[in-house]
Amino acid sequence: MKHYLQFNDLTADEYAYLFERAALIKRKFKAYEKHHPLADRTLAMIFEKASTRTRVSFEAGMYQLGGSVVHLTTGDSQLGRAEPIEDSAKVISRMVDLVMIRTFEQTKIERFAAHSRVPVINGLTNEFHPCQILADIFTFIEHRGSIQGKTVAWVGDGNNMANTWLQASEILGFKVHVSTPNGYEVDQSVAGIRSSDSYQVFKSPLQACQGADLVTTDVWTSMGFEAENEARRKAFADWCVDAEMMAAAKPQALFMHCLPAHRGEEVEADVIDGPQSVVWDEAENRMHVQKALMEYLLLGRQA
Ligand code: CP
Ligand code: NVA
């Protein structure tokens, strides 16, 4: 049994399969062709933080695969009343075939997975957001072909998205230019990467964008860190992706943002709403790649 708790949980070969499979699943969806490999299977979705895209993409995706979903939140389940994670994992995983969790510390999802009888998928933790990077790379491939050997500029917080980009760069063979404000750097040990070979740190966000094939950013304050809002607004003021940064990147560079976005903070409106932005494809592709992922975790490779 395989879990998907961080990007490192799958190999380059498995990703190559998933990207091809997601493309097929997407084509079938667009042609209104039925694809029901998970008929009679149930996905439990546990949300300890808010969500729009993750909820809709997993829920719609599972129904489209012929299955059904159960939606749980901290507030409306015993999870919010201190039932041990291990007990919750044992119970929930006896009744469903697959579990998706969005929570705080990565250790929480690891504890759940250690006691689960069924595969567990990370729908975002403080440390990682693997399903998002899966969608982002699929989107890059759709627009520009293989990401191998390319350069991704990360402008902003050394957060769950940044960590996951770093893991992906080691596995899929591309480079990440990272520029964060002082005090918000990526931490190689938290990111869980083997070396610093696949990334380079830049003080200036403009320099990080130079020659990039993809420029990407994220909110200044991630969920769970709201108490730091004011300090972050000051620290991140220069980490706003603007037209000058996009002009420093390659002419064919794409812009991505996992969303939700704050125009005028981490990105200017003319960039996110401009011609290089692929954020709506990126959001839609969450559903297609996660359908491929759920099918793979439950059924393995399909001929
Ligand atoms: N990008 C993303 O995970 O969005 P949600 O928080 O809306 O799920
Ligand atoms: N880094 C953001 C991503 C939201 C999808 C957060 O964790 O809130």
Brief sketch in words of this structure:
With 303 residues, the protein is an alpha/beta fold.
Q: Can you put this structure into words, describing what you see?
A:
By secondary structure, the chain is an alpha/beta fold. The chain has 2 domains: 7-129 and 283-299, Aspartate/ornithine carbamoyltransferase (Rossmann fold), CATH 3.40.50.1370; 132-279, Aspartate/ornithine carbamoyltransferase (Rossmann fold, 3-Layer(aba) Sandwich), CATH 3.40.50. The protein is built from 12 helices and 9 strands. The strands form 2 sheets. It has a 5-stranded parallel beta sheet with strand order 7-6-5-8-9. A 4-stranded parallel beta sheet has the order 2-1-3-4, sandwiched between helices. Strand 1 (42-47), helix 2 (53-64) and strand 2 form a beta-alpha-beta unit. Helix 2 packs across helix 12 (279-299), helix 3 (85-95) crosses helix 4 and helix 5 (130-144) crosses helix 12. Residues 51-54, 124, 132, 258-259 line the site of phosphoric acid mono(formamide)ester.
How is the topology of this model organized?
Layout: H1 12-30, E1 42-47, H2 53-64, E2 68-73, H3 85-95, E3 98-102, H4 106-114, E4 120-122, H5 130-144, E5 151-155, H6 160-172, E6 175-179, H7 188-191, E7 199-201, H8 205-209, E8 214-217, H9 229-235, H10 243-248, E9 254-257, H11 269-272, H12 279-299
Parallel strand pairs: 1-2, 1-3, 3-4, 5-6, 5-8, 6-7, 8-9
Helix pairs in contact: 1-12, 2-12, 3-4, 5-12
The structure holds phosphoric acid mono(formamide)ester and norvaline.
Phosphoric acid mono(formamide)ester is lined by residues 51-54, 124, 132, 258-259.
